[in-house]
Design brief:
This protein is of the alpha+beta class and 55 residues long. It is 22% helix and 24% strand. It has one helix and four strands; from the N terminus they run E-E-E-E-H. Strands 1-2-3-4 form a four-stranded antiparallel sheet.
Length: 55
Amino acid sequence: MRSDTCANGRDANCVEIGLGHPTAVPVRDSKAPAGPALLVSPEAFSALIEAVATR
């Protein structure tokens, strides 16, 4: 899993994403690494990142 830089040592609300999965992007709460992951399609994840980046 890959953590955002905001998760490094701060008490922040961050998520981690899994890399290298061809059919899904796992997303989980960085504070609960043993918790469940949300699986989204790579296309849906790309659309989310694009929407967030334009705000």
